[in-house]
Amino acid sequence: MVVSTLTAAPRGRPREFDIEAALDKAARVFSARGYHATSITDLTRAMGVAQGSLYKAFKDKKAVFIAVFDRFKAQRRTAFEALVAEGATGREQMRNALLFYAESSHGFEGRQGCLIIGCAVELSTSEADVADRVRFSMANDEAFLRLLIQRGQDDGSVAPSVPVEGVARALLCLMKGMRIVGKTGRTREEMVAAVDAALRMLD
Fold this sequence. Notes:
GO terms for molecular function: DNA binding. Residues 16-76 form the HTH tetR-type domain. The chain has 203 residues and is an all-alpha fold. Helices cover 68% and strands 0% of the residues. The chain has 10 helices and no strands.
């Protein structure tokens, strides 16, 4: 959604801006610094907007964060499901799901961290609306992993003896944990090796 460009506005009126592009820039700041350590000044600098424009579009820092969270989650979900769908079997789809997180858990992106994991740690006990979003996100991911295991059992690529609930939860922990470990500076090879080891739970 484009509110307008960053061209000069008449005197006395806040400059308007491309909200979606600005939110993408804010997501990088929140991911790297965390919610509490990010100031309004940090956001206006990163987003390239005046403080008056920011407050015109959003009530406060928390409102910016909620908008960033919702957009970030929707974008990640679209990319995640597209990669998963490339697998021909339930097992291949599960590997793609895990690789999606592995690819975000090394190099610069890995060290930057994950917005969702960060707020799960920082805000889930203090901000009820953020906690609800995190809980919903985690529940959706776990349900999706259960579906992939069941799909694999139906097509024969996953052993029928695999306990669906427990393994789905274990793989959820692995996926989210990779984003935390990635902040310590890991290689792609290390993350992919973790994926391949985890897939043995499907045998």
